[in-house]
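Deliverable D5.2: sample structural annotation.
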Amino acid sequence: RLLSITLGEPPGESWASDDASISRATLMTVLSSLQKAPVPKPAWSAALLIDTLHAQQLNTDSRLLAAIRFADMQLTHLLRHSLLDESIRAQLQRLFIPLVKTLLLDEAHYIDATGAVARLIDTVCESAVGWYGGLGRGGEQYLLQLADTIEQLLQGFESGLPVLEPIASAFAESISRETERIARLEKRICETEVGALRARRAQLLVVDFFNEKIAGRELPKKIVGYLQTDFLEQMRLFLIQEGPQSELWKRWQKLMDTLVW
């Protein structure tokens, strides 16, 4: 609501100022040219963009100024309070001019959580938490994908909002697939580790049980050999499958008592 009041009514084909009028097509062409150019140092900000437009003798009326300053405020707040790595922040900073254009074309497209630009920013902020430069190949691929997505947006977004939708959707779908893949991998790793721990625990229980039962007993070598190999291995496997509280394990214990009696 505050943004709508600040920007005022949506313009027609021009943005009027006290001195002259800026053709909507001309302004969008200039902004598109600036967003496609290499990122300046320091990066785009409200002050730098306003100075650049003035240098090109383009007047900035209240609506344009409001859009520029609002976009600057939003990105500045986001980057200042987010837990994102500097490399991720630098990529999001590249969206400054597209944000300005989006607000000028239709502020509801940005304010609405379903808007393509808002969804792209949200996706990055959620998926990039914890990212840092030392994550190896996977981390490098994420940063490259993000940079390619933003570059595609910068090069393709001229003056029509529909072009934004497939770009934002493709990035979100790719991140979703990768998240699911990682979840499956984590599950397999977890199951493998749990299985290894169970096997190790079963081995220790069986060995301790065996040593306890034969302690101080004089048994034939063939019996001892059988118990130490085939019999203990079968006990270990059943213990892994059924657990130490199962009836089957208790029967194996009784059988061991019978064999060493």
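Annotation notes: The first strand starts at residue 14 and ends at 16. DSSP finds eleven helices and two strands in the chain.
The annotation will be released with the project's public dataset once the embargo ends.
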